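Each letter names a residue; the fold follows as tokens. Both lines appear below:
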Amino acid sequence: MVQSLTNRGGSAAAIQHHYDVSNEFYGLWLDSSLTYSCGFWDDPTLDDDLEKSQQKKIDWHLSASGATTGKRLLDIGCGWGALMHRYVSLDPNYHATGLTLSHNQYQHICSLNIPNITVYEESWIVHQPTTTYDAIVSIGAFEHFARPEATLEEKISVYREFFSRCQQWLKPKGKLSLQTIAYGSLSAKDKNMFIQTEIFPDSELPRPGEIFMASDGLFEIKTYRNDRMQYGKTCELWLKNMRRQKLLIVEQFGEELYRKYEQYLKLSVAGFYFGQILLLRFEMQSLAF
């Protein structure tokens, strides 16, 4: 069955199940920018500085997307807005547009009232820009575009629709910087049902080859990185932060939520370190002239 317009490209209910637990909850174990994705650990001097690793990751995506050579950036799955905030702080002429299906994230960004940032509580599937973008970044959203029951053909179809729309929204030869978790040695039939049902319901990881297939003829892949070890380290630091804040988390949000997220992060650390799941980063350039 083909997904309807309301759930193709991501289910709002599934996103809100995870990301709308509480902004305060995430604030207790993420870095101060509330960046909830893999950091960039290519510099040994970073040690365990989570905040600096997240800024390096953001800067890598801004560079890979060519955002700093233009003035209009689209962030698909913008989280709590850290990348957009970083971008507009670089130049008063820069403007960032963010898309999120999380109501809490949308409210948080709106409450900051940052000039030159526009955020929409909507999916890319319904987004209708009024003009082209100079660059597009999407970090940690691609995992939510397909549903668990989707066939290979349906997955490729929704991924290709995403790439096609990105190409249409970009200026000629514009670039997309994409970051996503993907299947490694783990197969879809052997995925962890605790994470599938309790943590990220209604979501499905891509396989690397599916991204190549879906973008073929639309984007040239300029850079392809598998940084799974870097995500293992990021999850390890989140887990340490969570355990450090255990008493406060349990007091404010309950033992059950703490145990659930502790288990999820432990499984994630192991999954990335053992190669069951991957962390992919792409620099992609539109083939449209």
